[in-house]
Amino acid sequence: MKMNSWNPWHGCNKYSEGCDHCYMYYLDAQRDQDGSLIYKTKTNFNLPLKKTRQGIYKIPSGTMLHVCMTSDFFLEEADVWRDEIWDMIRIRSDVSFWIQTKRARRIQQCLPFDWNDGWENVILCVTTENQKRADERLPILLDIPAKHKAFMIAPILSEVHVESYLATKQFEQVLCDGENYDGNRPCRYEWVKSLHDQCEKENIRFDFIGTGNVFVKDGKVYRIPKAYQSVQAKRSGLSYPSGETDVPIQPRCKTCKRRYSCNGCHWCGKCIVG
Description:
Layout: E1 3-6, E2 9-10, H1 23-30, E3 39-40, E4 64-67, H2 79-91, E5 96-101, H3 107-110, E6 122-128, H4 131-142, E7 148-153, H5 163-166, E8 171-177, E9 187-188, H6 189-202, E10 205-210, E11 214-217, E12 220-223, H7 226-235
């Protein structure tokens, strides 16, 4: 399945402790922008409906679109735009829309009038970061009718036990990631392994998608550049079912560890590959 991102609006208000080192705020700051400014995007707002000159949708059938990766779909400030988005999702029933949010309490009131028991092309995903937020948000999603449900623990800040939620068999997928970009709160191997084991017991897909900047295993601290985090997560064997473990790593800049070749990036401005 092809994947892409769709950001009909940009900017967000920090909501809980997982937001302390928000990647969107960090990346905006690199461009001298304020991540707390929320605005409707000009070129991407109607992305699913854009067509080529031949009249073919630019987003092909079967694509998975991750919605609002630089914001939150259920922001109050976005209430004035959301109905238009539901209209587009309704039209593009051949595309899957992954809708992720920390604002679980606003989901029910913001669903479209004809939601009923959910739409086949929409996956509702709640993001949590620790046990407190899991216990706060996951029961809310369990009470909401939906064809597809998932949850993500990112950045993972503690061990999280979700056995009772997984046992409902309502969740199709669980994801986990560490803290990256501007954050250094550690992701611990045993936390991720615990989630892996919980999901394996219930035969639910678990994706460990990134180690974060600081990964701790067997008492040893590993500081991992952003470019390597997903690779190391794959190599860990902590996803379930087990995925690819033999992932090749291309040589990167010895200075910033992020780029394959120097392009004057803002990390150091003088990449040296070798």
